[in-house]
Amino acid sequence: MIERGVCISQSVKIPREPKTGEFDKVIRRLRENPNARVVIIFANEDDIRRLLHAAKKANQTGHFIWVGSDSWGSKISPVVHQEEMAEGAVTILPKRLSIKGFDRYFISRTLENNRRNIWFAEFWENNFSCKLSRHAVKKGSGLKKCTNQERIGKDSNYEQEGKVQFVIDAVYAMAHALHNMHQELCPGKVGLCARMDPINGTHLLKLIRRLNFAAEEGGGATPRSLNITCNYKHSINPGVCLRAYKAGSKRVACGGARHDAAVAEASEGLVMNLTGIAGNPVLFNENGDAPGRYEIYQYQIQNQTAEYKIIGHWTDQLHFNVRSMQWPGGVRQIPTSICSHPCQLGERKKIVKGIPCCWHCERCDGYQYQADTYTCKMCRFDLRPNENHTGCAPIPIVKLEWSSPWAVIPVLIAVLGIMATLFVVVTFIRHNDTPIVKASGRELSYVLLTGIFLCYATTFLMISTPDVGICSLRRIFLGLGMSISYAALLTKTNRIYRIFEQGSMSVSAPKLISPASQLAITFTLASVQLLGVCIWFGVDPSKAIIDYEDQRTSNPVLARGVLKCDISDLSLICLLGYSMLLMVTCTVYAIKTRGVPETFNEAKPIGFTMYTTCIIWLAFIPIFFGTSQSTEKHTLHCTAQTQCKLLDALQAQPFICQPDGGMNVKNGAGGSLHHSNRDTCSVCGARSLNCAPPSGIDVTPAYLEQASKSGAVSETGAGGGGGVAR
């Protein structure tokens, strides 16, 4: 039934002898699932009547759609006084034909000519509402004494019982089977012989099933089969016309020895074609069942008149007139009877245990899709469910767009930084031969500005669409700019530290403080970064990937795949780790040189820059690891770089404020070398610590000469390394 789309919500048994209230319990059980409205009844007519009455008491008129078996059929007794409850009921009856010969016979029966039927007297009393014995008639009972003059069909209503033709066919099937058994076991004898006393029931059943085992005459018969057609349609008496076939020869007789011999000779392959009293063939299939021929009725109420109407029939297949059907309340639309409503798209059925036609609908949520009626499956990692969760669709690919706020802010800062860096470079070039620029250590200053420029330029690489080329450039320049910057600053602070440390211990100049030595040290430190990047390229070549986990949200609608370079967070920290090492080392030297003379304003801006840079990086690292999305990580990284470089750019301020520089040196005789500084800072717009008029520092001519020879003449700003006052 399930394969045909029909299933049973629940099955309820009616006890053989139901107690009071038993049918009320049955109705309560049927009401447990209000969506299942069709009730198929296999019960006798009395139980059907009581079940309808219980449903009427429960106020379920019009709710249940009853389907009755042939025990209900077209009977009036189950529906009397509860017609509205039974309205719309569909019942069946075996397809029948009224046998006129039986009617003639039955209505002629009287108490005088039908004494052989021991139940006929009881039928007579019930049919005519009388009593055969005067003593059985009680006053006030409304009964009378039978006169024996009553006649069936004249003094009472008479309608032929619907199963009469089947009883007649069954009797004749049994008779022909017994006849065949007699011909087989007792050939040429009259009456029962010893082989049929007692009768073998198994053998008799086998002979009954041989009645037209093949549907057509001769069909399915072996060469030794014998087909016999017996037709008694026009007579109730057993007048039989026999037709025998044997090995292709035809022998016909109506009784007699010739036919009997033929039957006995071919009894092993006997096949009987028997035409029933109604003209239908009497036959049995391989399971011993007769073919079903049914008429389908519906109990309808029209114009306040209730009656059974034929709406179809079954003869090998269903013939149904849906338009002639009418449901409770006169409704023509076919009612629905389901245990559970169909699930929506994207929902799976979860069958209720023990009730295969009842289920709960469960939504395929998250990244699941409906694989079939009962299963939800996860979409592939690069897919997400479509809108109704019936399939999967590709996850949209995104990248950091130039128009995104996460890109605009770093780009704006980078552009301003590049402009400021180029402005400083131009200023240095314009005043390249001034004393203060010369004293600042021009070479390291240009290296420092180059590193700052690379850091700003890396911002554009971080925002560009990732591919193999962009990813390779990111690896190279992401840490290179900072390595160059911090290598230059480390060389500067180390030089200052060694000059003052050596000066406090000896008058001899420290080693490796010449410009060439400083450049060699700086490029050596920076080359370590390049070496690490080259090794990284060899171990893990650059490539662009789509990361589906970075923005895999709980809501698949918001899920995105991020196009990015294949650089893990750990790899990025390792890439920047060397720059961080240089930064920390530079900070240590900045701390050590914090006690230099106040007028030597080289170390203090470097120290301020390094302290601030360390604080920024200490905040940057945990925030970077705690941020899930790549765009925010890139923004944090770009912002950290640009902020650090803006702080580094403060070192160039004195060159802009005092491009001509100045020295104020007193000799031992009270003379002095003095350069007045009355100009204000043109870039800063106001006097600052670095732009303030110098207060001068007195040194002996001998020390000045020695310091100048050793290259220890200081810049008055943050550009280079030296240790002399203005």
TrEMBL record:
Gene3D superfamilies recorded: 3.40.50.2300, GPCR, family 3, nine cysteines domain
Organismal lineage: Eukaryota, Metazoa, Chordata, Craniata, Vertebrata
Species in which this protein is naturally found: Pleuronectes platessa
Domain called G-protein coupled receptors family 3 profile: residue spans: 406-630
Family: Belongs to the G-protein coupled receptor 3 family.
GO molecular function terms listed in the Swiss-Prot or TrEMBL record: G protein-coupled receptor activity
Keywords: Cell membrane, Disulfide bond, G-protein coupled receptor, Glycoprotein, Membrane, Receptor, Signal, Transducer, Transmembrane, Transmembrane helix
A Pfam family reported for this protein in Swiss-Prot or TrEMBL: 7tm_3
Protein name: G-protein coupled receptors family 3 profile domain-containing protein
